[in-house]
Write a structure and sequence with these properties.
UDP-n-acetylglucosamine1-carboxyvinyl-transferase, Chain, single chain, 14 helices, alpha/beta, four-stranded mixed β-sheet, 416 residues, binds ligand EPZ, elongated
């Protein structure tokens, strides 16, 4: 398992380009199975989660090739609807195939998805949406079997604005007979990107970005071309790295529209932000405390909770960070305490008392965003840190050490 070796107390300075969004690319890749033909997807980051999705598509019979940042996916010969456990357990996004394969083939067999250990990650909302459209879903020995004689448009109301359930419902409904209304949907920007891709395939969807999505089912879809939206979570992570290191960092290929909740918090604690239509610049010296509560978009994103908490460990005063989306998303806290942070977790909140400095030590990345928060802490800490299990970080951050090195960071990967 690779490790990062980081020497801290470096003020990050310079420009970094944000990659395409992992959480937009993954459902879009799944959506290519809804038709036969060759789709071209631009600006797809080279991440382990993306490589896992490619492995699943190839297992199903699709042909996938990468040319730089472009993925060429030919799903003409796609002829399987069973995804074995060893492919499903690698990541949560494998569940998107359930909606897409039921949408096109009216059947799928797969096991429960894997992914970061940030909570139980149930899929009851996904299954309920499929059943509303007419699918029969049952579970036998850990394998989920979903079948439908036909899919008919329906009125679906999600108990919670789940990102994945929204995306699965969209992909199941685009080929159903009739009109589908999905209420209480997730409003994340990645949902809009999926709607754009599906409409380019010939679907008739509108409403993504609002709390209700309308779908008029069509007979078939065709392959298309699309550029994935930028990764707002990678962008937020680099903005936080620049602020926490008291540096001067400009990130490009990003719209501030996707990050206003983070930018509002940062400007409120003393960071100096300037932005244009495709860049954000952050400068910061001493920062002070604030309270954070994660919420579905447009609230503060749960995926930036760990990196933000890392910054607050060295902010002046006491902050309260409340995680309302996932049940177990404070795995970074114990690791930050090893670096000298003063944090106490009570239920779904972490009380963070700012300290003047953190000290480098050996820490372990336990999930994707927890790992990112440890990189930020190590960059600001006194001395050298070793971050173990960086495979978790590689799931969601393309070339993170090279990008940080270009900003002046002392970070190297020790390959084991
Ligand atoms: C997506 O996960 C993202 N992953 C997550 O990013 C992100 O944290 C999350 O949305 C919230 O924004 C991808 O897009 C691949 P949810 P997803 O369904 O779809 C509960 C990262 O770091 N729930 O919105 O799994 C669930 O338990 C990853 O990039 C049900 O109860 O998130 C959780 O508490 C981590 N039943 C809450 O909803 C269901 O059927 C939010 O989950 C589905 C979800």
């Amino acid at each position: 398992m690779d490790k990062f070796i980081v020497t801290g107390e470096v003020q990050l300075k310079g420009n970094v380009r944000i990659s395409g969004a992992k959480n937009a690319a993954l459902p879009i890749m799944a959506a290519t199975t809804l038709c036969s033909g060759t789709s071209v997807i631009h600006d797809v980051p080279d991440l382990s989660d993306i490589r896992n999705m490619i492995a699943i598509l190839e297992h199903l019979g699709a042909k996938v090739s990468r040319e730089g940042k472009d993925l060429i996916i030919d799903s003409s010969a796609l002829n399987k609807v069973f995804i074995p456990e060893f492919l499903m357990r690698e990541m949560r996004a494998s569940i998107f195939l359930m909606g897409a394969l039921v949408g096109r083939f009216k059947e799928v067999r797969l096991s429960y998805p894997g992914g970061c250990t940030i909570g139980p990650r149930p899929i009851d909302l996904h299954i309920k949406a499929l059943e509303k459209l007419g699918a029969n879903v049952k579970e036998k020995h850990g394998v989920i079997i979903a079948e439908a004689k036909k899919l008919s448009g329906a009125e679906i109301v999600l108990d919670f604005p789940s990102v994945g359930a929204t995306e699965n419902a969209m992909m199941s409904a685009v080929l159903a007979n009739g009109i589908t209304t999905i209420r209480n949907v997730a409003r994340e920007p990645e949902i809009i990107d999926l709607e754009t891709f599906l409409n380019k395939m010939g679907a008739k969807i509108y409403g993504a970005g609002t709390d209700t999505i309308f779908i008029n089912g069509v007979q078939n879809l065709h392959a298309t071309e699309h550029t994935v939206m930028p990764d707002r979570i990678e962008a937020g992570t680099f903005i936080l790295a620049g602020a926490m290191s008291h540096g001067d960092v400009t990130i490009t290929n990003i719209s501030s529209n996707y990050l206003f909740s983070l930018l509002d918090k940062l400007s409120g604690i003393g960071a100096v932000l300037t932005f244009g239509n495709d860049f954000i610049r952050v400068k910061a010296n001493q920062l002070h405390n604030t309270d954070i509560k994660t919420l579905p978009f447009p609230g503060f994103p749960t995926d930036l909770q760990a990196p933000m908490l890392s910054l607050l460990t060295m902010a002046k005063g006491t902050s309260i960070v409340t995680e309302t989306i996932f049940e177990n998303r404070f795995q970074h806290v114990d690791q930050l305490i090893r670096m000298g942070a003063k944090i106490r977790v009570e239920g779904r909140s972490a009380i963070v008392r700012g300290v003047n400095k953190l000290t480098g030590t050996i820490v372990e990345a336990l999930d994707l965003r927890a790992g990112a928060s440890l990189v930020l802490a190590a960059l600001a800490a006194e001395g050298t840190s070793i971050i173990k299990q960086v495979n978790h970080i590689d799931r969601g951050y393309e070339m993170i050490e090279q990008k940080l090195q270009s900003l002046g960071a002392y970070i190297i990967r020790d390959m084991e």
